[in-house]
Design brief:
Length: 553
């Protein structure tokens, strides 16, 4: 066995980490968060990172003790004022105050049948004594006849080990048969029975303890024989706790600078290991046969989700779980159609039937404004003529589980006073205060028509090549001479209409006010004889118009 060396910081040199550690889970107090909280950790590291069970709770939480079935933890807390015994579920939920002492309370310990919890208290007399209370809060009574701290039940529940004036004592649960099993010549503390009841582990100061503050872990038989020192670290080692199968012991090791960690060892003091991921400043471990661990990653407790958002449930259970069942299967989308508060739970069960449940409360809220259904104007950028009277038609909907439509407002008629691209806008708001706007595009154009003798497609208008062709059209009045955006020609096969080429246009635009008519004079070429051409006229209102021509030979 290599020694543990305490320097300015606690430095631990160990033999190789064992291939397999005992199962269960270790509860302990740590100041890693800046507060004294109760944490749990998997001794093998397989269960992930340590969990701070009381993070966010006010006050000091310490001295955790596992229930025999691994579903609950007793601990000491001053969150209600004085230090009292509290219970919580193994995942840190449902904290319940068990005692209301009005004095000091310490070191709770469960009975093997989980019906009682023994603890040390200064209640009534101001002197420390061992008391017991039912796990349901009933039957509070004093157990030790005199001074006593650090109670520990025997595995069969018939006896209680405790410390009185630096010596270990064992007594029957009715207070009879009290006897010392260590001399008390050196201060002893924190007894812990092995699961088979054959030995008791405890902390003992070294002979020079008043100057060195060195304490080691020892074991002794319940009859006081066969004392054996487990550690020889030359540091402060205390608060031993046996693994559920009795194959290892966990205890705290503290250095002179106040730092502390958890260490496990076999009962012969060999095969020493620090549980992986142990946080700093860890004290007072309790090794219990815990229910399987659960890692609920989504939804998070307190999450606020947008209605109709896509959020997947995501969770896993520890390696001891034979069943891992959630409200929905892992990686299944949550139902976010309905608004309100919901609870997602995961239950893990091991082969022995122990189970743990982790729950997360989350809210689904309406974060989107009502949707708008446009009927007029509708789809695909509809076109309306300049000055046309077009009544709008639309409706708003907040969905079957929304907060309801409070505002659905848009103009009763489309604006057709100018040509070009427009947008019709509807303002919306729902009962949750989500406001928005939706828009539908539309286009306004001049009222276009070709003038005689030009006929629209598919008629080919006969013309002579080499002459000017007057292309007449109407726009419902004088729109100025800057109405044309572009003009081009497509030469096509007269029989099939297949395109043969495209060219620009040369022409001149004029306006006849008396006839309210435009004329685009197109100068043709004799080389166009016997061909067909499609004239494409693009206007500044965004519209396109075609006229087809056949040139005579």
């Amino acid at each position: 066995m290599r020694r543990l060396v305490a320097a300015t910081a606690l430095v631990i040199t160990l033999v190789a980490t064992p291939a397999a550690l005992a199962d269960g889970r270790i509860a302990f107090m740590s100041r890693a968060s800046g507060n004294e909280d109760v944490w749990t950790i998997d001794p093998t590291g397989a269960g992930g990172y340590p969990t701070d069970l009381t993070n966010g709770a006010p006050g000091v939480d310490q001295s955790p003790s596992w229930s025999p079935d691994g579903t609950r933890i007793a601990f000491i807390s001053d969150r209600a004022g004085g230090f009292d015994v509290w219970l919580m579920d193994a995942d840190g939920s449902n904290p319940v105050q068990l005692t209301h002492d009005g004095g000091s309370t310490a070191t709770p310990a469960w009975s093997p049948d989980a019906t009682q919890i023994a603890f040390a208290s200064t209640r009534l007399t101001g002197s420390w004594a061992i008391w017991a209370i039912g796990a349901d809060g009933s039957g509070l009574h004093r157990v030790s006849p005199g001074f006593g701290v650090d109670p520990a039940w025997s595995p069969d529940g018939s006896q209680l080990a405790y410390v009185s004036f630096d010596a270990l004592h064992v007594m029957n649960m009715d207070g009879s048969g009290d006897h010392m099993i260590t001399s008390g010549s050196l201060p002893d503390s924190a007894p812990a029975w092995s699961p088979d009841g054959s030995r008791i582990a405890f902390g003992r100061y070294r002979a020079d303890w008043q100057t060195s503050n060195v304490k080691e872990i020892w074991t002794v038989r319940p009859d006081g024989t066969q004392e054996a020192m487990l550690t020889g670290f030359g540091a402060y080692s205390d608060h031993p706790s046996w693994s559920p199968d009795g194959s290892r012991i966990v205890f705290q090791v503290s250095g002179p600078a106040g730092d502390s960690t958890l260490v496990t060892a076999t009962p012969d003091g060999r095969d020493i290991s620090v549980p992986p991921n142990t946080p700093p400043l860890s004290f007072g471990p309790s090794w219990g046969l815990a229910a399987p661990s659960i890692d609920l990653r989504s939804p998070r407790d307190g999450a606020v989700l947008a209605q109709n958002s896509v959020v997947f449930a995501h969770y896993s259970c520890g390696p001891t779980a034979v069943s891992c069942v959630g409200t929905l299967p892992d990686l299944t989308p949550l139902d976010t159609a309905r608004t309100g508060q919901f609870t997602f739970s995961v239950t893990a069960t091991d082969a022995a039937g122990r189970h743990a449940t982790v729950s997360a409360k989350y809210r689904v809220v309406d974060m989107t404004p009502p949707s708008v259904l446009f009927r007029t104007p509708c789809c695909d950028n509809p076109v309306y003529q300049l000055g046309a009277t077009v009544a709008t038609d639309f409706s708003c909907d907040d969905g079957p589980y929304g907060s309801g439509v409070e505002l659905c407002s848009g103009d009763p008629y489309l604006d057709t006073s100018t040509v070009g691209q427009h947008s019709f806008v509807v303002q919306t708001r729902d009962g949750a205060g989500n406001a928005g706007s939706s828009q539908q595009p539309y286009r306004v154009v001049w009222p276009f028509s070709f003038g005689s003798p030009i006929m629209p497609p598919p008629t080919y208008n006969p013309v002579r090549s080499g002459e000017g062709v007057p292309v007449k059209f109407f726009l419902g009045g004088d729109r100025g001479l800057d109405v044309i955006d572009s003009v081009f020609f497509i030469t096509v096969d007269c029989d099939t209409g297949a395109g043969l080429g495209t060219s620009g246009a040369l022409g001149k635009l004029s306006y006849n006010a008396s006839q309210a008519r435009y004329t685009y004079l197109w100068q043709t070429d004799r080389s166009q004889s016997g061909t067909c051409t499609r004239l494409v006229l693009g206007l500044h209102d965004g519209s396109w118009h075609e006229a087809w021509f056949r040139f005579s030979r």
